[in-house]
Amino acid sequence: MNASTDLMQAERRLTDFVRGFDASYAPEEALAVVRNMLLTTLGTAIAGASEDGCAAVLDFVRERDRSGGATVFIYGDSVSASGAALVNGVMCRALDFCDAMAPGLHIGSSLIPATLAAAELAGGCSGRDFLSALLIGAEVASRMNLAEADYDGADPTGVAGVFGATAAVARILGLDRQQTLHSLALAFNRAAGSFQSNIDGSLTVRLIQGWVAETGVMCAQLAQRGITGPGRFLSGVYGYAQQFARGLRRAGEFVDGLGEQWKVLGTVFKKYPSCGLTQGVTELALRARKELDIGPDNVGRIEVRLPPYAFRLVGHDFLIGENARVNAQFSAKYCVANALVRGASRLEHFVESSIRDPEVLAFTDRVDVISDETMQALHHTAVELHVDALGGEKIKLALDIAPGFPGNALPDQAHLMRFTDCLQYAAEPVSRQQADQLVQIVNTIRDQDDARVILSHMKVKRAGA
């Protein structure tokens, strides 16, 4: 085998997986992850549809698009497939209560809007094909995911997520081998995003999610029309393995065991509506409140110890900027204060009026967050909570793995509870009947005649409409 042929092996294997794999050959545990991802994303879209930025992006798409055919969640507008993917992706990420993967990749909130838009673009899609596309897209994104050091502050969703959304759309649209390869190659050229958006609390966090969904649709449509990308997008001298993985991984490593070993099993499902790196500290604070009766009246100072990567993202001082929700979601200080003052962590606690509660704000000043190099070896989400009680007692609580992460998975009931919390929070919720139908459809998605049935339950009837 010559070097030129070898260079293309990874791209060809990835392309063939996208085109040819059938979900019936996948293990049930991988399919369960995708079904949970689907339910989680639909719930967060319903709850997030009225959040900051969603209406503005929808207005932008209404003005831009002159063709319809794809459905905007909740609002019901008919816009272009790429436009629907953009708006719906923003909605799905608006509350940051969606699935995730260390070190910060959010797959479902782009994958599912893009795949549903593609199903409409294709004029329909069986539940079996839809499930296959979702699994393929989720697995591709998971395999393109990198380590913390490789990203070096880049947003994993913007970098790795585009490949998953594009793969799923290419599969739904039935692209041939060359078109599929070029759709992924085009997606490579759209890989971008920075965690500075998260640290600064900007709406770009949710917009990146929409861009990824939109990119998936656009790259597949462009490749379908003959637009080409770099064939060696994984293995080339400036390909993904070099440019993003910094030459520390072979191109073949991204496809080793494809269809047999499932990276999607590393998906995280959040127990609490904040950044994945605050899940552990929230859990410990609630445990201190509920089991040890620790609260504002009997505690002096609290010290939170985090691995360096987590500290850089959520360990900074808590300041309320232009988007209070994002500031709070990405603040270990706020999450601890909220849990200890209120004894819970729910969506309603991350609205601006709750965030500005004087009692909670005052308590954040009692929380110190420390970067601890020694914790890096434990787990990405390891955390310690040190409490100085007013009576002189010193209490230490610790978690090696936060709830919802592999190794500390959530029970099935927790996924339904998250979906219910989203419905209760939503400014414009779907009906109870619609919600029940969505749960049933998700559980039986493989047997559905047409996956577009989901969309009929993702619209809210408005008075006078």
UniProtKB/TrEMBL annotation:
<dbReference type="InterPro" id="IPR045336">
    <property type="entry name" value="MmgE_PrpD_N"/>
</dbReference>
<dbReference type="InterPro" id="IPR036148">
    <property type="entry name" value="MmgE/PrpD_sf"/>
</dbReference>
<protein>
    <recommendedName>
        <fullName>2-methylcitrate dehydratase</fullName>
    </recommendedName>
</protein>
<dbReference type="GO" id="GO:0016829">
    <property type="term" value="F:lyase activity"/>
</dbReference>
<comment type="similarity">
    <text>Belongs to the PrpD family.</text>
</comment>
<dbReference type="Pfam" id="PF19305">
    <property type="entry name" value="MmgE_PrpD_C"/>
</dbReference>
<dbReference type="InterPro" id="IPR042183">
    <property type="entry name" value="MmgE/PrpD_sf_1"/>
</dbReference>
<feature type="domain" description="MmgE/PrpD N-terminal">
    <location>
        <begin position="12"/>
        <end position="247"/>
    </location>
</feature>
<dbReference type="InterPro" id="IPR042188">
    <property type="entry name" value="MmgE/PrpD_sf_2"/>
</dbReference>
<dbReference type="Pfam" id="PF03972">
    <property type="entry name" value="MmgE_PrpD_N"/>
</dbReference>
<feature type="domain" description="MmgE/PrpD C-terminal">
    <location>
        <begin position="272"/>
        <end position="439"/>
    </location>
</feature>
<dbReference type="InterPro" id="IPR045337">
    <property type="entry name" value="MmgE_PrpD_C"/>
</dbReference>
<dbReference type="InterPro" id="IPR005656">
    <property type="entry name" value="MmgE_PrpD"/>
</dbReference>
